[in-house]
Design goal:
The complex is a heterodimer. Chain A is of the alpha/beta class. Chain A is built from 6 helices and 9 strands. In chain A, strands 5-6-7-3-8-9 form a 6-stranded mixed sheet, with helices on both faces. A 3-stranded antiparallel sheet of chain A has the order 2-1-4, covered by helices on one side. The radius of gyration of chain A is 17 Å and the shape is globular. By secondary structure, chain B is mostly helical. Classes of the chains: A alpha/beta, B mainly alpha.
């Protein structure tokens, strides 16, 4: 289903973060939001995920949709292990299936470790495994590979592409190379308030 | 040397080393007590630890001692448990509802700042004397549990709650996976502090109410007949029971923490 963001406004105190912002994302497209820190990209993702109430405007195409959201921070539950942090998104715990996702992100040996016992990069990979395991569509990815080294970053990008074919993805990044590799379309942004400066089609 | 024996994995002293350390600390304070007794040299003011110990062994041979200790424990623990339950329910209510918060917060603040003696004397007017100690313990512990649990709910990580919302945890799972583990450290602190408070307030109520079969009743009699040795012996009983209950509480809370993977 096409995601339609139409005339969305969002204000924090005196600061207008979104001012009649509109964007349409067809089903299956990967859109990369590229812009400076603090311009309002994360607020937009939070509005799409219904974590923020809109002042006005509409976001259509998300009704009853399961969303996989990889936040800027890992947001893992600190009191449970990596494998439990993956399986927690399912209604019934499936340790074997969660272990498979951890294996895919290269963390099968760290399955029983808690977030505090892992590095930032490892935690980010667990968060990616959780988002993929949940199987939501669209996927909202807020700087998902920030804490990873170059080699791991490439592996995780491949993994993301392989396991999310046909799904709508909205990706926030500050890495243009990453954007060009992953996106069908790059939306260059400025703000606040968030506004589209330019759109670049990458893959037809 | 024994104090330097540490568990390599946890970095903590080994169990025997900790026990020996605790025994040595207890012996040190007993020695201080003995020195104080020798310095004062007036049994009516300070009794020697040996005499208190001998008196305790005498008391322990009497059925009334066990009845008094048992009934006191039941009264105080029941007041404590009722406060833990009510305090937790009120904390949840006042955290989710502005109306409940507006309604209950002033009452809890009044309960918190009212002197314990006022409550005991008012309770003696309102209810029958055997129920006064449990009621007093209840009133003393309630604000502590309420304040701590409310604080725990308020300090639950908003980011984790957002994550739970995105991944559709639902109410039950959000409570079990996010709220309970977040609140548990605050709840444990409230229970540990509350248990000590319940004992102090409960025994004070027993003294003023002169409750039958109670530690407080015996303390009251010891005061009336100026039996300083009995006063010391019953006070030691209060301390020992308080330590025992606190120890039990710590172990129960550890087990609960393990269930929620907190330790």
């Amino acid at each position: 289903m096409e995601l339609q963001i139409k005339d969305v406004c969002k204000t924090y105190g005196p600061q207008k973060v979104l001012d009649h912002f509109s964007l349409t994302v067809p089903q299956g497209e990967t859109v990369c939001l590229f812009g400076p820190s603090g311009c309002g990209k994360t607020t937009l993702l939070q509005c799409i995920a219904s974590l923020e109430r809109l002042d006005s405007g509409t976001i259509a195409g998300m009704e009853r949709q399961k969303i996989s959201y990889m936040f800027q921070e890992d947001r893992l539950l600190p009191w449970i292990s990596a494998v439990e942090n993956v399986s927690v998104v399912w209604e019934h715990s499936q340790k074997e299936a969660a272990m498979e996702w951890l294996r895919l992100v290269g963390l099968e040996d760290a399955a029983e470790k808690r977030p505090a016992e892992m590095s930032g990069g490892m935690r980010q990979r667990v968060a990616l495994a959780r988002a993929l395991a949940y199987g939501g569509d669209p996927l909202l990815l807020d700087e998902p590979f920030r804490a990873l080294d170059q080699a791991t970053r490439r592996q995780m990008m491949d993994l993301l592409c392989t396991h999310t074919k046909g799904k709508t993805k909205i990706l926030v990044t500050h890495d243009l190379e990453e954007a060009r590799l992953l996106a069908d379309r790059i939306v260059y942004l400025e703000g606040p308030p968030l506004r589209i400066v330019q759109t670049e089609k990458i893959h037809a | 040397m024994i104090f330097t024996i540490k568990n390599k994995k946890t970095g903590r002293k080994s169990y025997p080393a900790r026990v020996v350390q605790k025994i040595l600390i207890a012996l040190f304070w007993l020695a201080v007590w003995q020195v104080l007794y020798l310095a004062v040299k007036q049994e009516i003011l300070v009794v020697s630890p040996v005499r208190v110990f001998l008196r305790l062994t005498e008391l322990m041979r009497e059925t009334e001692f066990w009845l008094s200790a048992g009934y006191s424990m039941v009264r105080i623990v029941s007041g404590f448990l009722a406060a833990v339950f009510t305090g937790t329910v009120l904390a949840v209510l006042t955290s989710v509802s502005c109306l409940a918060n507006g309604l209950f917060r002033p009452v809890i603040s009044i309960v918190k700042s009212t002197p314990v003696a006022s409550f005991i004397l008012l309770a003696l007017v309102w209810i029958e004397s055997p129920y006064v100690p449990a009621f007093t313990s209840f009133l003393m512990v309630l604000p502590v549990v309420w304040a701590n649990v409310t604080n725990g709910i308020a300090k639950t990580d908003r980011n984790l709650l957002q994550m739970a919302r995105v991944y559709r945890f639902g109410a039950a799972k959000t409570v079990r996976r996010v709220y309970v583990p977040s609140i548990l450290p605050y709840f444990t602190a409230a229970c540990t502090t509350g248990m000590g408070l319940a004992w102090k307030a409960g025994v004070a109520a027993e003294v003023l109410a002169n409750t039958k079969y109670s530690i407080g009743g015996h303390i009251y009699s010891a005061k009336i007949y100026i039996e300083t040795v009995d006063l010391f012996a019953w006070t030691v009983v209060v301390i020992l029971l308080s330590v025992l209950l606190e120890w039990m509480m710590t172990h129960i809370m550890r087990a609960v923490s393990r269930k929620y993977s907190l330790s």
